[in-house]
Amino acid sequence: xxxxxxxxxxxxxxxxxxxxxxxxxxxxxxxxxxxxxxxxxxxxxxxxxxxxxxxxxxxxxxxxxxxxxxxxxxxxxxxxxxxxxxxxxxxxxxxxxxxxxxxxxxxxxxxxxxxxxxxxxxxxxxxxxxxxxxxxxxxxxxxxxxxxxxxxxxxxxxxxxxxxxxxxxxxxxxxxxxxxxxxxxxxxxxxxxxxxxxxxxxxxxxxxxxxxxxxxxxxxxxxxxxxxxxxxxxxxxxxxxxxxxxxxxxxxxxxxxxxxxxxxxxxxxxxxxxxxxxxxxxxxxxxxxxxxxxxxxxxxxxxxxxxxxxxxxxxxxxxxxxxxxxxxxxxxxxxxxxxxxxxxxxxxxxxxxxxxxxxxxxxxxxxxxxxxxxxxxxxxxxxxxxxxxxxxxxxxxxxxxxxxxxxxxxxxxxxxxxxxxxxxxxxxxxxxxxxxxxxxxxxxxx
Length: 446
What we know:
The protein has 446 residues and is α/β, with parallel strands linked by helices. 28% of the residues lie in helices and 21% in strands. The protein folds into two domains: 4-57 and 378-389 and 413-433, Urease, subunit C, domain 1, CATH 2.30.40; 60-366, Metal-dependent hydrolases (TIM Barrel). The protein has helices spanning 79-88, 107-120, 136-140, 166-174, 187-201, 210-213, 216-233, 264-268, 274-277, 290-302, 317-320, 337-346, 352-366, and strands at 4-13, 16-25, 28-33, 48-51, 56-59, 61-66, 91-96, 124-127, 129-130, 150-154, 180-184, 237-239, 258-262, 307-308, 383-387, 392-393, 412-413, 416-422, 425-429, 432-433.
């Protein structure tokens, strides 16, 4: 069972696109060959054959930044529903964020979430541990084999997770052997802007002002602080959801120790879209200008931005329809992130090779994920087969999110996710998710 030969695929791997044939056996990539001679032997007679002529075979996407809302917020989404949505979008591995209920701030809670995931997740999984002003001991003794990274909220609070103690910050930034991920927005700037705009508009605040309240200055100020501190301590820093052109000046191709992530929402939308989409595209940091969007697209293609993460953060439609001050920030995105990137490829704003590098190779490298993120013999057979000659519209009928909506509804993508393989199992096939559960916990080579 679960032995396949995929013929005639356009393999995208390590900066190259090659027409090749690939065999899967025992959950791994068994053989890759540019000719099919070897696959005509008796050894492969029992393998299921898939003709991928004209289609791209990519490593399964690794989404380093999701909020699956489990535990504590499961009316919005849960491990079962959102992991299946991930598979439908070609995402085979996710790393979930700590701002759930209770927040993942201790090693015991981390173990509880891993145990929950073993029962509920349909894609591969891992978790980040939050660092706060009050859990330094937990952070310092975390098992680096069981956690992907440390997550810090700098300058913008989520619950009680905002770090304000300078000594704690220094200690966290000095920890070696784990990446430090930061959400960087300046809370004082945001509060000041909020007061100004609330006095002007009251409860009728237009959503279009979101990018002026959570402004470029709010982002740049705290990102710059994080970068400066990382240089001081030699931290492996990864700045999440960079949303402005100005922040790009903080990064360089030469400094591999300080890197950036961008989210598909900042590559697809800009502030002119607030009029059409309203609070459905309200997220933190805010979606900025068309100039910012263009700069981020270029920086991703050039490699200045290292990775893509969806920041998948579902809320119910009722919650999102409240006024500006009450509508929560975040949107469902894990199922459609790959298609947004493929759309940029179609528009020649992003190469297919760089897409795979940013959404598969580099996340695997950043977190030292064992034997995933590449199409290599001996690696886990996490793969996605995509067809860029077929168009597909996002509708309520093909959305897998528990919240049952997407800001992308009505969008026509020039791509189609055909099949997703997880640990050698065909788990998604032409709109249908298999009942077979093949997920594994991610392992880290540290």
